[in-house]
Amino acid sequence: MTTFPLPLFGSSAARIARLRVAAVRTAAMRTAAVRAAAVLAAVLVAGGALAQEAAVPADADAIVDRIVENLRGGGQRATIRMTVERDDATDRYVLETIGDGDERALTRVVAPPNEAGRAFLVDGSELFVYAPRVGRSLRLPPSGRSDGFLGSDLSYDDLAGDELRDTYDAAIAERTDDRVVVSLVPRAGAATPYGELRLTARLPDLTPLELTYLDQRDAPVKRLTLHDPRTLEDGRTVPTRFEVVDLTEGGGRTIATWEDATFGVEPPDRCFTLEALETGCRW
Amino acid sequence: MNAALATLKLAWRSLFRQRLRTALLIAVVAYATLSILFFWGFTDGFLNAIFQGQARLVAAPVAVTTEAYHADPDPVHALAGLDDVRRAVTAVPGVRAATPRLDVPALLRSPYAQRGATLRGVDPAGESAVSDLPDAIQDGRMLEAPGELVLGADLAETLDVRLGERVAVDVAAVGGPAATGLRLVGLIDTGIEAVDAGTVLAHLADARALAGVDGATELALDVPRGREAAVAAAASDRLPEGVRAYGILDQMGELARGLAAERVSMIPIGLLFSLFGAIAVTSSLVVSVMERTREFGVILALGLGHVRLAWMVVLEAILGTLLGYGVGAVLGYALLFVLHEVNVLGPLFTGVYGDFLSGLALGDEIRADVRLEYLAYAGVTVALAALFAALTPARRVARLVPAEAMRAAE
Q1: Which of A125, A147, A213 comes nearest B111 by C-beta?
Q2: ipTM surpassing 0.85, yes or no?
């Protein structure tokens, strides 16, 4: 189970109330931004998937951007079956997730029954969790994004890929006819404990295949492999099965499989509010 | 008056007529007195070591902070107007240095583990004046610039980070979540679990950026040892409303009250030493009275009354005990003085009870305390000896029949 040892400063209730107001204020702006992005995407898609595949950027940062776009898959609604394997036990979860493909996602546990109702809301750098047993929402520290949720090895950063672009300097470490390996080294003062990340993608469509986390002694400590890519209408190839292996001593394995996934959707802003976190979002 | 003086002289001479017995009596009382002095000197020295350990390794000799922060240590209650506060307290006699600190609850992450701890933002140049931690860095060095981190050795081991490696630090700050990566430059190894497993030092600028606080949660003051409470009281008088200076006992709160209660609970043990000493004196006197029955019979036959004879026995007990008390006091204070000047107890106790004591911020320096009040504690032995002597040997003497006493076997 994910643990959250940090006390929140000041009044959490007041901050959550401010967030509700801020969410309403920014909703209109976000809608406009999403629509603008959609128009831009439509223009790009008009160029055709072939054009996208043909133009593999030479610049490492641009490659990472494209890989991250594929990793995220844009707006989506899906059911995720997640298996968490440890030495002594295997836990299975069913999750329902809604994402805007940008920086917001709402994930709710629907099974097993003792975990059902637990929900997570990612809003930019903010992460909130709703615990149905206590009926309260809590804002978590930024580390919550890189913690495995529900005791798994899979984190929101693994799914979102924001950290790859914002925290690391990219350089092409290896390139062959069918794949490229990008080395990601933390920038000065980066809030990451890793020494390097190695991101492998398939060419020419830059479908993400593997992300290996190395410690600061060049030893791999975690590996995320991505399988079963699904090609979307806009040409993106989105992996639909994630396998995370904790390579440290006693580490486990987590497999997350996307089922009933609908990509290219535009969830309404009300799906990414604290009300939606507590009561769910249907649209 | 003359009779009393004569009885006193008689008792004094009797002490030296039975030299072996008197020497034994003096040795017993001296031993009890020395034990009591050592017991209290060590107890207070031990408590002082804990207080000083707290003052120099965990808290501060005197901490100036807001009353709100003292009640609820949340950075939202940080000190405002730090420069004014600093000016006010540095003018207080006894304040040798003042340095700001900013304590922030943080989560430290390595690729292998994560731990919650209180990150202390410090001014590297000023911290060594109020804290022994900079001197306790066994590997690496003290902070020199922002972006650096010093950890307790046990905490670094738990996180499995080495010198030169980056540690991710997350904070739920006043203005929202904040995170950064700090490079480990020093490891503190004091042998004290509470310090080695919990210390996180970062540059004040990093702590401010993380916490979203411009000032400090406290101003730590360096004051002479033993004057913490007095200086704190004097400083508080000069501080604005809502800001107070706290001595080490105030900072320790429940722990200080617990230790004070421990000291009180030691009193029965101290009294037990006195009781054993008094019983030893009394038993020695009882034997003495039994052996001297014939002598007492002669004295009674020569005209000394029963009451004066009983008083003589009591005075013998008091004089003998006083002599032992004097010898014990000289030896005891000499011992305490040596144990105060030379740190013998610290290595001895940390070596033997290191694991047991590791939960306390107790360094390897334990020096005996030397206080005049210990004379009063040891004086209980003399009082009890006199009381017991009056109860048993003196009553026996008072009941002697001269003719029968003179026929008693030697």
Answers
A1: A213
A2: no
